[in-house]
Design a protein that fits this description.
By secondary structure, the protein is mainly alpha-helical. Helices cover 53% and strands 9% of the residues. It has 5 helices and 2 strands; from the N terminus they run H-H-H-E-E-H-H. A two-stranded antiparallel ribbon has the order 1-2. The longest helix is centred in the last third of the chain and has 32 residues. It is elongated, with a radius of gyration of 24 Å. The model has no long low-confidence stretch (mean pLDDT 89).
Length: 117
């Protein structure tokens, strides 16, 4: 069975010609399928663009930033997996809670320590 011929990968210059990079072109540029790009944008997992759904028709519109797409491909755009981001937020919240509980405990200790019965 012959291998499928893949289309030429667009250059950074090709990408920069657009204000809003078409999904198919963005997919070729970073080596993803256009379906993967659409799902990633719809699920807010792609840091280089956004997707918006029309509430009346259910159709989706996509906006892919050429600059952010290039940074993403070059590894210059920080991206997190949802699981990692959730863990970071949970750790941060835990540190805040521990700090607040410690402050409240100290205040209660001072109040109770200063009371005479």
């Amino acid at each position: 069975m012959p291998r499928r011929v893949t289309a030429d990968v667009p250059s950074e210059g090709d990408i920069l010609r657009y204000n809003n990079v078409p999904v198919e072109l963005a997919a070729k540029f970073i080596g993803w399928s256009d379906v993967t790009i659409r799902y990633a944008l719809q699920e807010e997992r792609a840091p280089f663009g956004i997707a918006a759904q029309n509430p009346k028709t259910g159709t989706w519109a996509y906006n892919i930033s050429p600059g952010l797409l290039i940074k993403y491909k070059n590894g210059e755009l920080q991206a997190y997996k949802l699981k990692d981001l959730s863990q970071m937020l949970a750790d941060h919240a835990e540190r805040i809670i521990e700090t607040r509980v410690g402050t409240v405990s100290q205040a209660i200790g001072k109040i109770l320590g200063g009371c005479t019965t």
